[in-house]
Design goal:
Two copies of one chain form a homodimer. Chain A is built from four helices and nine strands, in the order ββββαβββαααββ. Chain A has two domains: 130 residues, Nucleoside Triphosphate Pyrophosphohydrolase (Alpha-Beta Complex), CATH 3.90.79; 62 residues, Winged helix-like DNA-binding domain superfamily/Winged helix DNA-binding domain (Arc Repressor Mutant, subunit A, Orthogonal Bundle), CATH 1.10.10.10. Chain A is of the alpha+beta class. At the A-B interface, helix 1 and strand 5 of A face helix 1 and strand 5 of B. The structure holds a DNA duplex (27 and 27 nucleotides).
DNA sequence: ACAAAAGTGTTATCCATACACCCATGT
DNA sequence: ACATGGGTGTATGGATAACACTTTTGT
């Protein structure tokens, strides 16, 4: 009668904008039966750590960053989702600004890489389903919260912010309407600095007044 | 090193309208350290049942009904949420039409009863927090899905439906606007019958065209 | 006849959308 | 001077919100 219980794991759907595409971080597995297949990073939850803490720990291991947007997604509890063990997995989704992050592999995995969300390989476990749910949630929350801040650098131009929205939502937005909306929400403040990286007219740089999740109608 | 893992449980927040109030079902506990306290019903997930199945099983045990609206809420994973064991709990919320249901206790509990959501006793574990999250989710989903059907009998009057919305949202709605909206959504059909229980002008009875969850702007 | 809930339309306001030109800069 | 993205305002249509009276029944 010992050990007659499911184990608990976490899985991380880590989103970032890389090369102008919405990407997720995937690890390549070493062990059978999923050898060489790709999956979301994750791991078992220890007896003395909270599930949230396990997700944060794992995120730190893979990206070496903490203090990012991290939200529980849902819990996958099918009996056969892992063919070898009974594992109930709590999925999280994270938003990071990839510019200063390099993904770190470990002995446990063959590789870790960014994949554009619309060009995912076949994934292990029920992770294909998980990716769909995560993407739907991201799109939906983009429209009524301020969580984009998780994907943005410290300061950025309004066009850059608009691009991120367009990439994720998969449609063009009207520049004037976008700016009108963003300004009316009063989430941003001007830094007073300008983007000098471009060779054209410099754009004002903005930053978020605060970087924590709020509920707001955006688009 | 054996058994060094959290266990997995489900908790059920079962909503229903009872005596014109939004209520949840609570069980009264027998065992220490929560003796006599109230909590949401729930139980451990077996090794060979999915988490969803465990939730359904538990709901059936408590209410003797199946085929109701049941949705995963979130997973509570704090280390100390249960002082005796390490239990990660997947919370669900269910909507039932209480008219034909009587709550069933069991040897495990002292009692089971409906409590109005705004008059809850102090709850065991982290269940007070859970009740807040469940209620917020119910209110929010009421506004963009058709899940009210879970709380309604087979056929009902428009005024009855409006009352249910008003009870849950905690505010009065305009009768004409409500009806305009409901009709424009085309979720209902007239049964052709009339409510003869009242002593006044009889109201048309309606039923839902289909009883499954849909995303729709309602209020 | 009266009490009580059922049923029904119109107007005003707000918000989302569509749309085009001038500006500041580096080369 | 020119090429490039930055920056700005207005007009229209659709949805939401406010609002009051007539109808049908049982007693």
């Amino acid at each position: 009668m010992k050990n007659e219980h499911p184990k608990v794991a976490v899985d991380l759907v880590i989103f970032s904008i890389v090369d102008g595409m919405l990407c997720v971080a995937l690890i390549q597995m070493k062990k059978k039966p999923f050898e060489d297949m790709w999956a979301f990073p994750g791991g078992l939850v220890g007896l003395k750590e909270s599930v949230d803490a396990a997700a944060k720990r794992d995120l730190k291991e893979k990206t070496d960053i903490s203090n990012v947007y991290l939200e529980q997604l849902y819990t996958a509890g099918d009996v056969d989702r892992d063919p070898l063990h009974r594992v109930v997995s709590v999925a999280y989704f994270a938003l990071i600004n990839s510019e200063k992050v390099t993904l770190k592999t470990s002995k446990k995995y063959k590789d870790i890489r960014w994949f554009p969300v619309n060009k995912l390989p076949r994934l292990a476990y029920d992770h294909s389903e998980m990716s769909k749910i995560a993407l739907a949630r991201l799109k939906s929350k983009l429209e009524y919260t301020n969580i984009v801040y998780g994907l943005m650098p410290e300061s950025f131009t309004l066009s850059h912010l608009q691009q991120v929205y367009e990439i994720i939502l998969g449609r063009k937005l009207d520049k004037r309407n976008f700016r009108k909306k963003i300004h009316s929400l009063r989430l941003l403040k001007k830094t007073g600095l300008f983007d000098r990286k471009t060779t054209r007219r410099p754009a004002s740089l903005y930053k978020f007044k605060e970087r924590k999740s709020k509920i707001i109608e955006i688009l």
